[in-house]
C-alpha cells in the first residue's frame, strides 16, 4: 500500500527567486523540516543547460524511531538518500528517496513543481511512499508482516512531514534572508 504525499503552499515571492533559492540552498532548509537533522549534498551533475542531477542525504533525527523499532531500524534509517532531477525550464524536480543500506525497503517517488500564482509562487509536492519491511536483513517474512505497521509508521513519520513542510521551509529561508539584508 502506498502512502500518498500531497501538499501545496503559496510562497509570496517571484517564482524565479523561489526556484533559485530552492535549487541552490536546499541543504539549508533542515531547520524548518520536522525530523530532519540536516541535509547533505552528495553529488552534483549538470546534464544540460536546462537539467541537473543532484543527490542528497537527509539525516533523520534519532527520536523518530520508537524504542521497539530501534533494534531493527536504527542502522538503516539514520539517513535517507534522494536522487533528484531538476528541470530548470519547467520549474520541476523529480525525486526518488531510498535507503542505501537496505535495497527495496523504501521507495518514494514524486515531484516538486513551482508555478506562478497571483500571490507569488505555488509550490506543489506530490509523492508516493512504498515500504517493504520484509526486505529488512535478518527479519523472516512472517515477522516482516507483523512489523509492517511499525516500519510504515516510522518511515511515514520520518519522510511525509518533511516533504509536506518543504514549501513552508523554503518560505522561511527566504524570509530569513530578506530580514538579514
Provide keyphrases for this structure.
alpha+beta, 181 residues, seven-stranded antiparallel beta sheet
Helix content, binned percent: 25-40%
> So what's the overall shape?
elongated
User: Overall mean pLDDT score?
Assistant: 86
Number of DSSP E strands: 7
Proportion of strand residues? 35-45%
The end-to-end distance, rounded to whole angstroms, is 47 Å
Largest sheet: 7 strands, antiparallel
Element string (H = helix, E = strand): EHEEHEEEEH
Query: Which class do the helix and strand fractions yield?
Result: alpha+beta
User: What is the strand arrangement across the widest sheet?
Assistant: 1-7-6-5-4-3-2
- Can you tell me the residue ranges where pLDDT is under 50 for at least 5 consecutive residues? none
Rounded to the nearest angstrom, the radius of gyration is 17 Å
User: Helical segment tally?
Assistant: 3
Please characterize this protein's 3D structure.
The protein contains 3 helices and 7 strands. The protein has helices at 15-25, 70-73, 141-180; strands spanning 3-11, 36-46, 51-60, 79-87, 92-98, 106-117, 120-131. The chain has a 7-stranded antiparallel β-sheet with strand order 1-7-6-5-4-3-2, covered by helices on one side. The model has no long low-confidence stretch (mean pLDDT 86).
List the helices and strands and how they pair.
Layout: E1 3-11, H1 15-25, E2 36-46, E3 51-60, H2 70-73, E4 79-87, E5 92-98, E6 106-117, E7 120-131, H3 141-180
Antiparallel strand pairs: 1-7, 2-3, 3-4, 4-5, 5-6, 6-7
What's the gist of this structure?
30% of the residues lie in helices and 39% in strands.
Amino acid at each position: 500500500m502506498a502512502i500518498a504525499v500531497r501538499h501545496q503552499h503559496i510562497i509570496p515571492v517571484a517564482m524565479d527567486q523561489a526556484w533559485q533559492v530552492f535549487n541552490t540552498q536546499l541543504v539549508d532548509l533542515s531547520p524548518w523540516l520536522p525530523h530532519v537533522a540536516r541535509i547533505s549534498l552528495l553529488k552534483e551533475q549538470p546534464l544540460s543547460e536546462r537539467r541537473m542531477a543532484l543527490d542528497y542525504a537527509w539525516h533523520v533525527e534519532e527520536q523518530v524511531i520508537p524504542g521497539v523499532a530501534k533494534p531493527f531500524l536504527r542502522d538503516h534509517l539514520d539517513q535517507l538518500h534522494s536522487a533528484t532531477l531538476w528541470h530548470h525550464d519547467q520549474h520541476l524536480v523529480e525525486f526518488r528517496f531510498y535507503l542505501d543500506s537496505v535495497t527495496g525497503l523504501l521507495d518514494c517517488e514524486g515531484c516538486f513543481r513551482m508555478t506562478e500564482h497571483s500571490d507569488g509562487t505555488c509550490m506543489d509536492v506530490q509523492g508516493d511512499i512504498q515500504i517493504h519491511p520484509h526486505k529488512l536483513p535478518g527479519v523472516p517474512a512472517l515477522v516482516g508482516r507483523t512489523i509492517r505497521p511499525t516500519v510504515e509508521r516510522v518511515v511515514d513519520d520520518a519522510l511525509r512531514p518533511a516533504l509536506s513542510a518543504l514549501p513552508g521551509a523554503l518560505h522561511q529561508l527566504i524570509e530569513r534572508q530578506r530580514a538579514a539584508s
